[in-house]
Amino acid sequence: MRGELGEDVYASWFRGVEVDDIADGVIHLTVATRFLRNWLRTHYYDTVLRQVQGEWPNAERLEFSVRQPHFTVEPPKDVAIPRAVSPQVVAERSALPMPLRTGYDGFEGSPLDPRLSFGSFVVGNTNKLAHAAAHQVALSSSSPQSPFNPLFLHGNVGLGKTHLLHAIAWEVKRQKPEAEVLYLTAERFMSGFVQALRARDALAFKEKLRNIDILLIDDMEFLQGPTIQQEFCHTLNSLIDGGRQVVVAADRAPTHLDKLDMRMRSRLGGGLVAEIKTMDYDLRHKILEKRALEACAETNGLEVSDTVLAFLAERLTESGRELEGAVHRLRASYQLTDEPVTIAVAEQIVRDLMRGAEPRRVRIDDILRTVSKHYGVNRSDLLSGRRNRSIVRPRQIGMYLAKLLTSRSLPEIGRRFGNRDHTTVLHAIRKVEQLMSDDTQLREEIELLKRLLRD
Predict the structure, then answer these.
(1) How far apart are CA 33 and CA 420, in angstroms?
(2) Can you tell me whether residue 356 is helix, strand or coil?
(3) Which residues contact 346 (CB under 8 A, 6 or more apart)?
(4) What is the average pLDDT score of the chain?
(5) Which tens digits make up the pLDDT trace of 29-59?
(6) What pLDDT score does 260 carry?
(7) CA–CA dist 203, 20 (Å, integer)
(8) What residue ranges in 14-145 does DSSP mark as E strands?
(9) How far is CA 447 from each of CA 222, 367, 400, rounded to the nearest angstrom?
(10) What confidence score (pLDDT) does residue 97 get?
(11) Which carries the bigger pLDDT value, residue 106 or residue 424?
């Protein structure tokens, strides 16, 4: 469903759908709300049935129902495994719990995604502090006093804050199944409190929250209203003073949450504040590599080269969701067209994810910088008289790209590449063209460099 409809539609309507039972040709699916049940019946019944019949050919119809609040769900028995899935992935899936909602004493929390664990979180220089702190909090859940309370995670959208909150919840329940864990978005907290006020049950609502073991609040920047903020601050103080763990995530540091009053900002900043910074190239590449390996393991024949991953890592710089979405699209394209995944295919698929659709003017300085970075050589070496093979080949490729992508003459290119004669530049161009005719990998590398420079 994700591959056919896209990540946004999937996340909005299908992420919380669960298989409850399979009997007599009827697939019983459960959802969290009546609205979601009615929407899926009206808008996606035929689409879901078609996908279901691809997994279970004897399926004749679907039944959607609203499930009761719960924490753990046993996966249905006698479920056929799709043929395209490898034994290793089957083993991992069988050990993975299905999506669930946290809850306590009748209060239902927001859903947890079983894919968002510490094992699936990719660690890099920009998020290692937040990851280490979150992991330590999860491991210390059974301790009398956590070293970081509250733990406040902040960063831009799509950098992994929600992932870490889910991972903490899963790890706490794994270590201590009886622990009372509640994961809420700020919006859900506000909704629950407003309903309690209308029902004149606000005191009971607050007491329920104060008796849990660990409270995880996401999207704190959306918590609004002086009354709600005041009650949340009381709850926060009560939990922390009672030795209960609180973890909060927001898009800004506590001091910059202008909608919160000074007292709450002070309390939220009183523990550990860990920023998740914008992902660097290495982390983006690691995320793409991990997600591509997972996609290839589940899709027979799918191959994604490192050249394609490098191209995506260079171009997609906004968020982890953007990177995962690109891999989903590549996978869906291969499944639908059976065409190999090349840079050209990758560019076409993720064009709308990329910024700067119009090609920009390429300068020789851009070529020198890009070639130096790609081949791991110093710019000074490219301009020097050194004749090492590891230097000569990138230098020749740089000259070839300069002739191809700029309007500079051969003598000008020679001067920019260390005052070389124009015949040296001409020899380099012919050499690269000859090598490209016989070397597929070199052709892909140069195609990658061309796209990076043009875009």
Answers:
(1) 71
(2) coil
(3) 308, 311, 312, 326, 330
(4) 79
(5) 888 766 667 778 877 888 888 888 888 888 8
(6) 78
(7) 35
(8) 18-23, 26-31, 61-66, 100-104, 107-112
(9) 44, 13, 12
(10) 43
(11) 424
Residue 432: what residue type? V
List beta partners, residue 26: 23, 61
Whole-angstrom distance between the N-terminal and C-terminal Cα of the chain? 31
**Cβ-proximal residues to 175 (8 Å cutoff; 6+ apart), any chain:** 138, 139, 141, 142
Token pair of 177 as six digits: 């199944």
**CA-based nearest residue to 290, from 121, 103, 109:** 121
Structure token pair of residue 127: 């998020």
Strand ranges (E), 147-208: 151-154, 181-185
Length of the chain, in residues:
455
Find out whether 100 and 70 touch, Cβ atoms under 8 Å: yes
pLDDT in tens, 60-87: 888 888 775 443 333 333 333 333 334 4
Burial of 192 (0-12, 13-18, 19+ CB in 10 A): middle
Decide if 205 contacts 193 (C-beta within 8 A).
Answer: yes
Half-sphere exposure of 217 (CA within 13 A, CB side): 23
* Banded pLDDT at 165 (limits 50, 70, 90): very high
Phi, psi of 331 (to 5 degrees): -65, -45
- Residue 415 tokens read as 């001067």
Q: Are 32 and 66 contacting, i.e. CB atoms less than 8 angstroms apart?
A: yes
Structural tokens at position 297 = 């393991």
Measured CA to CA, the distance from residue 273 to residue 129 in angstroms comes to: 10
C-alpha R_g of the chain: 27
Which pLDDT belongs to residue 164?
93
Coil, strand or helix at 216: strand
Which residues fall within 8 angstroms of residue 216, CB to CB, at 6 or more apart?
A: 165, 168, 169, 181, 182, 183, 184, 246, 247, 248, 249
One-letter amino acid for residue 128 of the chain: K
